[in-house]
């Protein structure tokens, strides 16, 4: 056995070095992207970064701690409006509005989540659904603050007076935040806190016997996930330069839900893969399916919204039925085959 | 008219509208009893049924009665397909995963309806007479009153059927203890399929009634989400509590409309749900369950 | 170390436990035996805080823990295993065991997320300690990076023991540690439980069905029947007690000698 272990150690260490190298290559590629890629690629990369942050958040609460949220989009919305309002009324810079948006979403999340975190399952799902509808209702209805359906216009974020006013400049900000958010999430799930999350997801009574204060950790997971949503929302506000209720409907919540499921629940890599897949999917539909349908005489561009719903739904059901561990598992399998 | 009289009138009309919600609630609870699955696609099932009705009676010009038959039949087929393809393979998987599957099915149906029929309002043939019904001095719109009457008849009929038929008894046995039921020779899988048939029927009738009282749009199903929220308050174990929950939503919508702009109607059930969760975290009639470890 | 006094527990009129007292002495293995339905698991659920008894107290190391929640009892040094294995399938063996040390660690979400030195040091120390003390002692090194669900039943039982042990509990509650095991696995588990007492100096309270195992490894045995205590003493005393033979073995003392 010990002989086998010593021989197996070397490849493991080598694997780690290889992983480092790949990460550096990836980082360089991400930094260089705006210099080499066309503008609309950079736009999608920025959008993708924001979606990755929000998906990491939902993955922390849903994939790790088992707290299903149907209102994630609404918490993203709270972050977006918070950042927009702080900028418009108080003129605060993004490095204040960003964390403030996160905190605001976490607080609003607490208001909706706290009553039902004491008990299991269904109640929280309903509470988050309530959050989705009620918050969206507030976005539309609180005219004097949110400007209703028209929404708010947001000025570009700026660093030391240098405005991040095009997709390339904002891309770098999003990239930094997305990387930090991913590292933070990875650190959390590898720690005592992350183990407690998984324990609650799988057997909350056993978790209590092992000393895990289940209510407290559920609360932490829920607040943390909402915080991520809020930060993503703030970035979205600076990215689009406007905020309106149309952006934060149930469909977006379904989008994040699909991203977590498709990527693989309870996997940091999965959240990235899932968000990537889901962000690019509408583009694939647009670039691929619409011209294809056009050739045989159908105009699909008018029905993108329902088409998207069908595809999101099929992905949720399909992955849950066939590959509940998602793309992360497929990736692992492919890697194993490749390295053989 | 005095404010009190007005309030009573609103309440009566609201409760009348709640009859249909009670029917939806029954469909949800039957599936829950059979398989502990919470069907988040109920609203979409009922909306789809209403579109089936539209397609059969208007597009294929079969007329309302034959159209209703076709709609019922297609709804049952869809219910069975959902159960067979997406629900049965999830047996034994975590509760939350099954909930997500039904949620995904809802999205698929919403999308399909959007693709086939588009987002605009459609008019279905009038199957309910419009002549208003007077209860003393209280004026109840004709279609609401008749929809309520039909819903009550069907709810009562279904409850009697579930109580006295073989299938109903088997369903209740499976709900009480699936393992024992199985050992007594009850095919639990067939019971689950049966529960989806019942849900499809209640969904179809409530969908057609809703579309007759209001109009037919892809948003028709949203109301089932409200029903879902309030059902949880009623407690999942008693059919009676759930039916009352259905009536409460109808009442709440009407009374909200009396005091607040109509757009508030969409969210009042959720606000009520949150308030109750705050005060009674296990629901109004729910008891804390002792769990086996 | 653990003193359970006069516990009364009933569910809607049915008495699960009536006047049960158990005392687990420091550094000893104390066993509670009794036929199925004697209230053994109910007793454990009272001790770990899942059931609130109508009366009676649970004292841990001189402190009354009767009103504490399960997790608070864990923080005071109580740990347990479960009759039906309660491992976490989404984690590796190593992570399952590390979860057992939850109460030994201090990191919060911010410290963990930002990768502060507190968390890094804690996790490093834990990793080393788990590998050195627990994984090795319970012979789990070959499977430590496996996912639990792929492993054999006896092995899973041992991982549960490891998880309960890693916090260095004052009292370790073992709920039927050899249930469903074959002869070899039983002997192995008996060896590990004795090892826990001898090498870790941990006080053990176990409930078991299997007389052979209990008689071999226990220092002290208490017998329950229909929620009532009927005897207690050393294994030899209990074996000779006529009330025990009558209640537990249905008057046939052949079974005792045979199984022992």
TrEMBL record, chain A:
CDD domains: TM_PBP1_LivM_like (cd06581). The keyword Cytoplasm does not apply. It is found in: Cell membrane. Keywords: Cell membrane, Membrane, Transmembrane, Transmembrane helix. Its main location: membrane. It comes from the Bacteria. InterPro entries: ABC_transp_permease, LivM-like. Signal peptide: none annotated. One of its GO terms (molecular function) is branched-chain amino acid transmembrane transporter activity. This is Branched-chain amino acid ABC transporter permease.
From TrEMBL, chain B:
Belongs to the binding-protein-dependent transport system permease family. LivHM subfamily. This is Branched-chain amino acid ABC transporter permease. Pfam families: BPD_transp_2. One of its GO terms (cellular component) is plasma membrane. InterPro entries: ABC_transp_permease (IPR001851), BCAA_transport_permease (IPR052157). It is a multi-pass membrane protein. It is found in: Cell membrane. The chain crosses the membrane at residues 12-32, 52-82, 94-118, 138-162, 191-213. One of its GO terms (biological process) is amino acid transport. GO terms for molecular function: transmembrane transporter activity. Keywords: Amino-acid transport, Cell membrane, Membrane, Transmembrane, Transmembrane helix, Transport. It comes from Tianweitania sediminis.
From TrEMBL, chain C:
GO terms for molecular function: ATP binding; ATP hydrolysis activity. One of its GO terms (cellular component) is plasma membrane. SMART domains: AAA. Residues 2-251 form the ABC transporter domain. It holds the Pfam family BCA_ABC_TP_C. Keywords: ATP-binding, Nucleotide-binding, Transport. This is ABC transporter ATP-binding protein. It comes from Tianweitania sediminis. The lineage of its organism: Bacteria, Pseudomonadati, Pseudomonadota, Alphaproteobacteria, Hyphomicrobiales.
């Amino acid at each position: 056995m010990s002989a086998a272990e010593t021989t197996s150690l070397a490849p493991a260490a080598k694997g780690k070095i290889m992983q480092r190298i790949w990460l550096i290559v990836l980082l360089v590629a991400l930094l260089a992207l705006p210099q080499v890629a066309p503008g609309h690629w950079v736009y999608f990369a920025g959008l993708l970064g924001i979606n990755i942050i929000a998906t990491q958040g939902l993955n922390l609460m849903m994939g790790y701690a088992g707290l299903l949220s149907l209102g994630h989009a609404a918490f993203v919305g709270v972050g977006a409006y918070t950042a927009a309002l702080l900028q418009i009324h108080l003129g605060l810079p993004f490095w204040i509005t960003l964390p403030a948006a996160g905190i605001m979403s976490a607080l609003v999340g607490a208001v909706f989540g706290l009553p039902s975190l004491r008990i299991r399952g269904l109640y929280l799902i309903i509470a988050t659904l309530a959050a989705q509808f009620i918050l969206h209702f507030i976005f539309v209805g609180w005219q004097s603050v949110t400007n209703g359906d028209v929404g708010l216009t947001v000025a570009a974020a700026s660093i030391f007076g240098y405005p991040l006013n095009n997709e390339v400049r904002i891309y770098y900000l999003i990239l930094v935040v997305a990387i930090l958010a991913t590292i933070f999430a990875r650190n959390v799930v590898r720690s005592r806190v992350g183990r407690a999350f998984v324990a609650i997801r799988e057997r909350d009574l056993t978790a209590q016997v092992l000393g895990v204060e289940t209510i407290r950790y559920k609360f932490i997971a829920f607040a943390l996930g909402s915080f991520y949503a809020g930060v993503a929302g703030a970035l979205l506000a600076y990215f689009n330069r406007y905020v309106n209720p149309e952006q934060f409907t149930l469909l977006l919540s379904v989008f994040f839900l699909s991203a977590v499921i498709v990527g693989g629940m309870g996997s940091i890599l999965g959240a990235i893969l899932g968000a990537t897949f889901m962000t690019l999917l509408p583009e694939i539909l647009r670039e691929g399916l619409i011209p294809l349908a056009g050739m045989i005489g159908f105009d699909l561009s008018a029905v993108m919204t329902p088409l998207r719903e069908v595809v999101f739904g099929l992905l949720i059901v399909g992955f849950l039925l066939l590959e509940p561990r998602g793309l992360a598992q497929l990736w692992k399998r492919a890697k194993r085959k490749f390295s053989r | 008219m005095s404010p009190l009289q007005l309030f009573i009138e609103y309440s009566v009309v609201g409760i009348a509208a709640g009859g249909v919600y009670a029917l939806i609630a029954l469909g949800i609870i039957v599936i829950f009893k059979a398989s502990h699955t919470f069907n988040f696609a109920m609203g979409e099932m009922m909306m789809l049924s209403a579109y089936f009705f539209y397609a059969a009676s208007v597009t294929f010009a079969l007329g309302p009665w034959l159209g209703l038959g076709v709609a019922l039949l297609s709804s049952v087929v869809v219910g069975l397909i959902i159960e067979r393809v997406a629900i049965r393979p999830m047996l034994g998987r975590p509760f939350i995963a099954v909930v997500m599957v039904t949620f995904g099915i809802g999205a698929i149906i919403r999308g399909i309806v959007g693709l086939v029929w588009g987002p605009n309002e459609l008019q279905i043939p009038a199957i309910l007479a419009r002549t208003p019904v007077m209860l003393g001095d209280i004026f109840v719109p004709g279609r609401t009153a008749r929809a309520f009457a039909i819903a009550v008849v069907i709810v009562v009929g279904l409850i009697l059927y579930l109580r006295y038929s073989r299938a109903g008894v088997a369903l209740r046995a499976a709900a009480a203890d699936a393992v024992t039921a199985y050992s007594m020779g009850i095919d639990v899988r067939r019971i689950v399929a049966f529960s989806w048939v019942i849900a499809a029927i209640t969904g179809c009738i409530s969908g057609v009634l809703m579309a007759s009282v209001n109009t037919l749009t892809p948003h028709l199903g949203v109301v089932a989400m409200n029903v879902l929220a309030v059902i949880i308050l009623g407690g999942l174990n008693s059919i009676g509590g759930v039916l009352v929950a259905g009536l409460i939503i109808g009442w709440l919508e009407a009374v909200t409309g009396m005091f607040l702009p109509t757009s508030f109607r969409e969210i009042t059930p959720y606000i009520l749900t949150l308030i109750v969760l705050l005060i009674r975290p296990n629901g109004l009639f729910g008891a804390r369950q002792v769990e086996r470890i | 170390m653990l003193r359970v006094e006069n516990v009364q527990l009933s569910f809607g009129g049915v008495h699960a436990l009536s006047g049960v007292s158990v005392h687990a002495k420091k550094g000893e293995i104390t066993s509670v035996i009794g036929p199925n339905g004697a209230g053994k698991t109910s007793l454990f659920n009272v001790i770990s805080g899942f059931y609130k008894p109508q009366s009676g107290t649970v004292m841990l190391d001189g402190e009354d823990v009767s009103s504490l929640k399960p997790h608070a009892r864990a923080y005071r040094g109580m740990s347990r295993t479960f009759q039906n294995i309660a491992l976490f399938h989404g984690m590796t063996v190593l992570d399952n065991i590390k979860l057992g040390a939850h109460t030994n660690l201090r990191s919060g979400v911010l410290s963990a997320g930002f990768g502060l030195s507190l968390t890094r040091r804690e996790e490093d120390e834990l990793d080393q300690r788990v590998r050195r003390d627990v994984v090795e002692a319970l012979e789990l090194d070959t499977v430590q990076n496996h996912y639990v669900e792929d492993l054999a039943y006896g092995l899973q039982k041992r991982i549960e023991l490891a998880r309960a042990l890693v916090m260095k509990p004052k009292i370790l509650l073992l709920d039927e540690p050899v249930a469903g095991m074959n002869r070899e696995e039983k002997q192995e588990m008996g060896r590990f439980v004795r090892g826990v007492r001898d090498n870790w100096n941990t006080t053990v309270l176990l409930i078991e069905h299997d007389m052979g195992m209990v008689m071999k490894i226990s220092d002290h045995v208490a017998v329950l029947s229909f929620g009532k205590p009927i005897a207690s003493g050393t294994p030899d005393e209990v074996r000779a007690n006529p009330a025990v033979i009558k209640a537990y073995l249905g008057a046939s003392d052949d079974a005792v000698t045979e199984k022992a």
